[in-house]
Amino acid sequence: MLGAIAGDIIGSVYEWNAIKTTIFPLFLNGSRFTDDSVLTVAVADAILKGEPYGAAIRRFGLRHPHAGYGGSFKQWLASTDPQPYNSWGNGSAMRVSAVGFAYSSEEEVLLQAKLSAACTHNHPEGIKGAQATALAIFLARTGQTKETIRGRIAGQFDYNLDRTLAQIRPDYRFDVSCQGSVPEAILAFLESGSYEEAVRNAISLGGDSDTLACIAGGIAEAFYGGVPEEIRAPALAILSADLREVVQEFYRRFIPAGGG
Questions:
Q1: Angstrom distance (rounded) from CA 211 to CA 231
Q2: What are the tens digits of pLDDT across the range 68-82?
Q3: Average pLDDT for 132-138
C-alpha cells in the first residue's frame, strides 16, 4: 500500500507537467500527497475497522478537502445523500491497493475491490479497473511471475498488455479513464526491474502521472517485496499524521515485514 502512496507523491509534481523520460528527481520541494493517497488510506482504514468503504472514503475526503478531487467526486462528498455516479474514472483503481494486500483469496479480493469501487465508480469499467489492480497486487504478492500476471489480467479483464512502453509513450496523453490508464500502469510495472523503475516508467508516459505511478507502485511493492527505505522514509514523512497512523497500523496488521 505504501508503494501506491509513494508513487502518488513522486508523481504529484508531474501530473500537470508531463515528462517523457525516466530520468527525474524522485522528491522535490513541491512533492505532496494527493487524493490518491488520501483515498488509498481511506480504503485501508475501512478494512481495519470493518467499516463500509463509502463511509470511510467520505470521512477522509471531508477531512482532506483540498487533496485534488475530481468534480463529480466533490459533488458526491458534498451530498447529503451520496449515491454512486456511474464513473469509469481511474479513481477506483488508484485507491484499491490495500484490498490486494489484505485478503487471502482471489475471490475475496475481487469482491472487496468491487465494493470499494461501487460506492462511487459503479460503471463496469470503474469496477473492472479496481478489480484488475487489486488482483495484480494479490498475484504479485503471492509469488506469481510477471508473465502469469500479464496473462491473467489480460485474459480476465480484456486489457491489451502486449504493447511496450516505447510504443505507448510518444502519443500517450493525460487520460483519467480506467480503460485508458490502468493497462498502461500495469505495463509500467511489467517492464520494470525494481520498485523505483516501475514508478519511473509510469511517470515517463506523460499522462495522469500521480495515478499511473500510484497503481504501478502498489503492484511493484507487492512483487518486489516492499518499498526501498530511501523512498519509504520520505514518503511517510510527507503524509499527514492521521494518514501515516493508518498506514502504520495497516502494516502491523497485514504486512508486518513491510516496514510501514
A1: 17
A2: 999 999 999 999 999
A3: 98
CA separation (Å) from 253 to 10, 113, 131?
26, 19, 22
Maximal C-alpha separation, the chain: 46
| Helix H or strand E encompassing 31 | none
Extents of the domains making up the chain: 2-254
Question: How far apart are the C-alpha atoms of 50 and 39, rounded to whole Å?
Answer: 16
Burial 135-152 (b: 16+ CB within 10 A, else e): bbbbbbbeebeeeebbeb
38 vs 91: CA distance, rounded Å: 11
Nearest to residue 1, comparing CAs of 46, 54, 66? 46
Yes or no: say if 129 and 109 are a contact pair by the CB < 8 Å rule.
no
Identity of residue 257: A
Domain 2-254 CATH class label: mainly alpha
- Residue 182: its pLDDT value, please? 98
Please give the pLDDT value at position 76.
97
Which residues have C-beta within 8 Å of that of residue 135, sequence separation ≥ 6? 100, 106, 109, 110, 113, 152, 153, 156
Task: Give the angle 77-82-87 at the CA atoms, nearest 5°.
Answer: 80
Cell of residue 138, nine digits: 494479490
Torsion of CA 188, 73, 111, 207, to 10 degrees: -10
Q: Residues 182-239: pLDDT tens digits?
A: 999 999 999 999 999 999 999 999 999 999 999 999 999 999 999 999 999 999 999 9
Distance of CA 118 to the CA centre of its chain: 16
Q: Name the residue among 217, 183, 176 with its Cα closest to residue 33.
A: 217
SS3 content of the chain, % helix, strand, coil (to 5): 65, 0, 35
